[in-house]
Amino acid sequence: MKGEKFPRKAFRNPKGETARRLGVLAAKVLNVETMFEAFAGGGSRTLLYASHLWPKLKLLHANEGNRGFLCELLYDYLSKGLPTHILRLSVRDFATDWSFFVCNHEPYDWVDLDPFGSPSPFLIGALSLTKVNGYLYITATDTPTLAGRRPGDSVRLYNIHIPPWDTYGEVGARALTYYVWSIANSFGKHITPLFLYYEKYAYRLLIRLGDKRDARNIGYIQRCKECGQYLKSSKPLAVCLKCGGENEIFGPTWVGPLKKKEVLTIMEEEAHIIGWNEVARTLRWLRQEIDVPMFYSLSSLKLHRMPSVREVVRILREAGFEASRTQFDPTGIKTDASPLEFLPLLF
After folding, report:
1. Cα atoms in the 13 Å half-sphere on the side-chain side of 75
2. What is the H or E stretch that residue 204 is in?
3. Backbone angles phi, psi at 21, to 5 degrees
4. Which of 36, 204, 268, 277 is the most buried (most CB within 10 A)?
């Protein structure tokens, strides 16, 4: 910034402000007291956490492998007069030194994992640092891999073949959630997604870590090559149950809910109190999206007339189906109706 004397090296992504604020709101309404940032960077999230969570927040541990970035963080932190007694700093490479934190510190209520690219190599360490019934806030910026455009990388990083479907936004969301579940499952734990926010270039996933294994939300998603029907199941189905066509199969993957409405509702209320009205609108969007696996893109249905998303949602609801917009595609429709049921309503 003009007039600053302190040299700036850390990258600050202005597009990530909404996601950072979502993390702050969630930590606030969930009454988080101890927090660990695996990759603090220049401190954009650290400053927000300290500003809005104190005095409830008792410990804010910011780790950053780049000493210069950490100096920027400390400079800004002190300049803003934020509470120093809750701040703990460390300069370690989380990829190789996560076991140091596990061995030398108690687990945290909240772990923030925001690496460059895939979070996959760091999930064992991040989950090991998260308390049972604590929270892990994950960022994944390797969206081409999660969109199925790099098959070798999807198997290497997420241990799953991700199909290059046109609904790639949600395919990636479910693949990411499945991989987080699989790592937690190897520890004898399970996860509950509280929300997933898709920013086109990144995914933000907040999960609660639970005790004991639970595989009820793991299954398969089928897409019929003939009628386009999506169907979730506990086992792969080669034939469509609606029309008898051949299915494309994605899985095993996460087929359960991607959010907790009650958490999003409280976060939205808090956003209005703070004055983050744009974030409140995002939360309302996420809350109103119905939680069924996959969506139908109007642009791919080859309709004679392209109706508006709002019009289609209204028509489906009037016909007795559940329907909503989706964050994954501006022309996408989430509904419990099959194409064979809803397409005739659009002509």
Report:
1. 15
2. strand 203-211
3. -70, -35
4. 36
Rounded to whole angstroms, the Cα distance separating 230 from 223 reads 5
Question: Among residues 207, 205, 203, which one has the least CA distance to residue 140?
Answer: 203
Confidence of residue 4 (pLDDT cuts 50, 70, 90): low
Q: What does the longest C-alpha to C-alpha distance in the chain come to?
A: 69
This prediction's pTM: 0.95
Average confidence score pLDDT of the chain: 94
222: left (phi over 0), alpha (psi -120 to 50) or beta: beta
Tokens of 54: 């104190």
CA dist 55 → 22, 34, 43, 83, 105 (Å): 19, 11, 19, 9, 21
In DSSP terms, 197 is beta-bridged to 204
pLDDT tens-place string over residues 6-16: 555 655 666 78
The residue written with tokens 């996460």 in the block is 254
Angle at 277 between CA 29 and CA 58, to 5 degrees: 30
Buried b (16+ CB within 10 A) or exposed e, 124-140: bbbbbbbeeebbbbbbb
Nearest to 36 by CA among 118, 104, 116, 120: 104
Contact 24, 48 (CB under 8 A): yes
Minimum mean pLDDT range among 191-205, 215-229, 240-254, 296-310: 296-310
Distance separating alpha carbons of residues 327 and 196, to the nearest angstrom: 10
d(CA 164, CA 146): 9
